[in-house]
Amino acid sequence: MDLNALKMFVLTARCGSLSAAARENNIPLPTLSRRIAELEHELDVVLLERTVKGCRATEAGKKLLVQASSAIDTLNDAEQFLTTADSRITGRLRLTMPQSLEPWWEIIRQFQRIYPGIAINVYTTERRVDLVSEGIDVALRVGSISDDDVVASHLMDFRHILVASPALFQGSEPPKEPSDLMKYPCAAWGSVIGARPVWMLGEHTYDVPATFIVNDYLHLRSGALAGDYITELPAFFAAEYINSGKLIEVLPQTRLPYSSLHLVYKKHRHVSTAARAYIEFCKANVHILKEKSRVPSDDESMYP
Hints:
The protein has about 300 residues and is α/β, with parallel strands linked by helices. It is about 35% helix and about 25% strand. The chain is built from nine helices and 13 strands.
């Protein structure tokens, strides 16, 4: 099997397009297409199929991609080690994270300032992508991780809080207990059309009388700042605005559940030098996110 052709197949499957793979890796498109066709002929199997947006791996191609990706990444690391004259890390890092996890961009920016030789591709989505078939090195994920085929490195736990603009309560008092929420418009995060949102307030489940539901915390925060409604936000989305007085905590004595933040990567696969550098950098600098999560109702021990 031609190793260069195999590498070109992996690059193309990860990019999802022959033209994108050729452009990003400085390979002439006719050469890339020809070498993959030769590999398919050698293996007597179709590895890539055309789609409206480009191409995708067939079932046979997916199996080869799983087996070949680790070997190709290992060879790329070895090539970098032998050809790089100094200690700078270079390469390409493929990441995925939730669409509206705004504070994480600061960590990525700081990482790239320290490692300018690493080119970063970030795919933002609320969907939990398949790390191998979509060519992802490291995923940032919220919530519990139940997949036995991945390594989940815990970064931190964070609170959710109810917030609103002080303007919403002009001429009235903010809610003092959950039943008071019925007096005000509420908005909630939700990813399933038609599903009824629920807030866990202390030990009780509360059906939210939501007039607006969206799977975007940034939009929920904008509406809260405009005085449109009460909503639930992760603390790191709200802390800056609470501390400046633009938002207030609603029912601060009633705690909502914590969520966990993890870095996730495939088990039993080679982890590239760039990915290892990113993982270690995130662990060392997650305090940036912890600092952005502090609100007045916190206990002193919550974000050490």
